[in-house]
Design a protein that fits this description.
The structure is a single chain. By secondary structure, this protein is of the alpha/beta class. It has a single domain, classed as 3-Layer(aba) Sandwich (D-Maltodextrin-Binding Protein, domain 2), CATH 3.40.190.10. The protein has six helices and five strands; from the N terminus they run H-H-E-H-E-H-H-E-H-E-E. It has a five-stranded mixed beta sheet with strand order 3-2-4-1-5. The chain is globular. The chain starts with 6 loop residues before the first helix and ends with a strand.
Amino acid sequence: MKKIISAPWFGIGFFGLFMVVASPEKILATDIAIIVNSANDIQTISDGQLKNLFLKIDRYWSDNVPVTAVHRNEGSPAYDLFLSRVQGQSSSQALSFWIDRKQTDGSSPPLQVSEDRLVIHLVASVKGAIGYVEANHVADHPQGIRVIRIIKE
């Protein structure tokens, strides 16, 4: 005697599997735009330069303006992508790095903000600022900032 799987069970099981696999935050790419204050004359930036600025190894731009690095908040897709692609760290490794730096030389991590619009506002307001946001948030070219690089997921 053959057993037949009922259609409703299969449908619910398949739909549940589809929901897990097709969840938007797992599939959609989050490209990030590296932005600087529009008064900054830098045209492009390498991963190494970015890493040094956000780890506070380099603290001044070429014109001696202090660097103000602005991170997105921990756990945001942009933060995770930036850490993994640019700094080569997980969020726990980044936290350990800054705890060690604080104990060693008193350094504090870059400012973290909760929304892309706040990163844009801060970078536009501070001459030496650099930050990153999800690329779709700078598509309409907000005033006061300039995109110098896109990092693809």
